[in-house]
Automatic annotation (TrEMBL):
The keyword Metal-binding applies. InterPro entries: DNA_glycosylase, HhH-GPD_domain, HhH_base_excis_C. Keywords: 4Fe-4S, Iron, Iron-sulfur, Metal-binding. GO terms for biological process: base-excision repair. One of its GO terms (molecular function) is metal ion binding. This is Putative DNA-3-methyladenine glycosylase III. It comes from Magnetofaba australis IT-1. Coiled coil: none annotated.
Amino acid sequence: MMAGAILVQNTAWSGAKQAVDALKLAGLLSPSAIRTADPAALGAVIRPAGYFNLKTRRLKSLCEFLGRYDDDLARLFAQPKEILRAELLGVWGVGKETADSIVCYEAKQPLFVVDAYTRRLFHRLGWTDAKAGYDTLQDLVHGALPADADLFGQFHALIVHHAKAHCRSKPACPGCPLAARCRLAQGESL
């Protein structure tokens, strides 16, 4: 499912899921199948995820990397999280959020995934500055919670759920369970 981490970049999960389903239907979910697929054909299959030409190259790049491990995810994921993350960050098209998603959700190692929802919520709650960087936000969570991949995954899922329901770019403050703690809901100008 590492393909999903690439396909969801800069798009909603619904489009990425359509692309993953299409890859499965086309028999293109394995790293070897993606490596050998015609780029134009692969792009057509993943079109629902958007940016399909770019994501085709990124998928192929990730699968070339996996080939160095003989497509053995257990061997790849057995590495310490710092080494695994560094290797993933060396793959063209894989940034911090994508690498950390793979480490947390796929390798089941404790790294919190920071995204736009996390940035928005933490800033509105007054926990961080609007310009706080990825590492600052990640360190905040790592310092506040026990290092547990399932806990980090659940916390991130709750942030995403809350942000989609209330803490949108145009907030829906009425009924928000965090309104009493939110600077924006309390009328502060952010």
